[in-house]
Design a protein that fits this description.
With about 525 residues, this protein is α/β, with parallel strands linked by helices. It is built from 16 helices and eleven strands. Strands 5-4-3-2-1-11 form a six-stranded mixed sheet, with helices on one face. A five-stranded mixed sheet has the order 6-7-8-9-10, with helices on one face. Strand 8, helix 14 and strand 9 form a beta-alpha-beta unit. Helix 1 packs antiparallel against helix 2 and helix 6 crosses helix 16. The N and C termini lie close together (about 10 Å). The N terminus is likely disordered.
């Protein structure tokens, strides 16, 4: 009779081992192989009838999934504590809450996967891949606290020929693919001691096909992206700590002469400054006259003789007519002509930017921003650029919307000065993780992406996903001249969106329902 307790400690150790391996893939050292093996121990822990295991109670799959997900994200998100501790006393509680919430979703995913395997006869690797992918999709769609920072298999973004499938099904494909392969490895590993060699031939061949076909297709597809015409040239300004900040136009003008001298030696089309480089609003007053900073930016672009894309603030009256809504925004100022409308940051960092808590309360230093809900590209020369602000790049739908609306390339403006390479414990994996998102967005839509950060990483990604680690050292102040390659044909992902994620969420929900029904029948019996 089932006792309701998880199976023996071996399953717990396997789940934690998977969590450690998944967490390692969120680091700069994950490589192209570990993502395909990380879920093998978890599949072994979940598989019914695991040799030497104690009887599995109904709580076992949830506990194993919780441990794997919580361990993985505790490792991958460790940087939240040193990065946020200087802003709020809630850094540790927020970190623990995020890890716990992701652990609960991971536990539900594993319980649902095992229920589908037992009750619907789904192959365990397929059920686990679908439910885990569905859990990641769900995390990105929680109102107010959506979370899209990491996904399983995302480290393959640094190995473009292994990630070509994202142009078809988006970054969710990497999750489904790596979890399915890892689950298959785990199931075959369990059968090694119980089945003859001939009984393992068929599953081994099937696993080889699942793992190998996308790799071969990726290698062939990657050859079509070698080289490519340069459509534009960008001068990316890595401005260092504080950016423009309170210095305003003086900090902007500090870069005028270096940019002018550089433009003589290496001509460029647009100078790009990081997120909120100007901590002041741009645009016009209600009476139609330009705000002071708007005039200074226009003078700067005119003197430079090139367009300027800059992170600043945007404002509008609140609906109550008394307050002002502030937006974290980006603008294009041509060398001659009017300032563009604002691109308003579409995805706000939970608890820091979208908080309605008064400034100073609970140790928070951010007053919060309004969310821009209609991402559209900004005009630049005869074309358009899709500006994204920092956390936006973690969300595939935002980049996809910009490309569908005519963006010829994407620019990610980031204020990463809270990742301080000059201070202990603040030069973290987050630098690398943020750069991973830019690579995934480039491959999903087959467009160039230029990321410009206050302290790094600043780099350009080609439509084929090729990029150096960084054009400038982290923490260095300087200018990097980066090429923007001509975009490829519109991808299937750009046309259809995250259909795989939505389908897997439906499977995840079905698995939870089946698991709950199984639990109810078990209690009644």
């Amino acid at each position: 009779m089932a006792t309701g307790r998880p199976r023996g400690g071996g399953g717990v150790l396997l789940a934690v081992a998977s969590g450690v391996a998944i967490g390692a893939t969120f680091s700069p050292f994950g490589g192209p192989v570990l993502p395909f093996l990380a879920f093998a121990p978890l599949a072994m822990a979940l598989a019914p009838g695991r040799s030497g295991s104690a009887p599995a109670g109904p709580a076992a799959p949830f506990v194993h999934g919780f441990l794997a997900a919580a361990t993985a994200h505790a490792i991958g998100l460790y940087w939240m504590v040193p990065a946020l501790a200087w802003r709020t006393r809630l850094a540790v509680p927020v970190y623990l809450l995020v890890v716990a919430m992701l652990g609960v979703l991971g536990g539900a995913a594993c319980a649902g996967a095992l229920a589908l395997h037992r009750r619907r006869r789904w192959p365990l690797p397929v059920a686990l891949a679908a439910c885990w992918t569905g859990f990641e999709w769900a995390a990105t769609h929680v109102p107010g606290v959506s979370y899209a920072w990491l996904n399983a298999g995302g480290s393959l973004g640094w190995h473009p020929s292994a990630a070509a499938g994202v142009e078809v099904l988006g970054a969710r494909f990497l999750t489904f693919w790596t979890v399915a392969v890892g689950g298959g490895v785990g199931v075959i590993g369990l059968r090694l001691g119980k089945a003859g060699a001939t009984a393992l031939v068929r599953p081994a061949v099937l696993l080889s096909v699942v793992a190998g076909v996308p790799l071969v297709a990726g290698q062939l597809r990657q050859r079509t992206f070698e080289g490519g015409d340069v459509a534009a040239t960008v001068a990316a300004v890595q401005a260092g700590h504080g950016g423009g900040g309170a210095e305003g136009a003086a900090a902007l003008e500090r870069w005028l002469e270096p940019l002018r001298e550089l433009r003589v030696a290496r001509p460029f089309d647009v100078a790009v400054f990081p997120e909120r480089f100007l901590a002041a609003p741009l645009g016009d007053r209600e009476d139609g006259t330009a705000l002071p900073m708007t005039l200074r930016v226009a003078d700067f672009a005119g003197a430079l003789g090139a367009a300027t894309l800059v992170g600043a603030l945007d404002i509008e009256p609140a609906e109550n007519g008394r307050d002002t809504v502030w937006y974290n925004a980006a603008f294009v100022q041509p060398a001659g002509g009017a300032l563009s409308r604002a691109y308003r940051k579409d995805r706000l960092v939970p608890g820091l930017e979208n908080t309605a808590v008064p400034e100073g309360a609970f140790g928070l230093t951010s007053r919060g921003y309004g969310r821009g809900r209609d991402p559209r590209p900004l005009p630049l020369g005869g074309g358009a650029v899709g500006a994204m602000v920092c956390y936006d790049s973690a969300y595939g739908p935002t980049a996809r919307a910009l490309v569908r609306r005519g963006a010829e390339w994407l620019a990610v403006l980031s204020n990463d000065d809270w990742l301080d390479p000059d201070k202990p414990f603040r030069a973290t994996w987050a630098y690398w993780q943020h750069a991973t998102h830019a690579r995934l967005r480039a491959m999903e839509n087959r467009v160039s992406v230029v990321q410009v950060a206050a302290t790094g990483h600043t780099f350009a990604v080609s439509p084929g996903g090729r990029a150096s680690a960084s054009a400038l050292e982290a923490g260095e102040e300087g200018i990097a001249v980066l090429p923007v390659r001509r975009r490829g044909a519109q991808t299937l992902y750009t046309r259809l969106g995250d259909v795989l994620g939505l389908a897997c969420f439906a499977v995840f929900a079905l698995g939870v329902v089946v698991d709950q029904a199984r639990g109810t029948r078990g209690r009644h019996s």
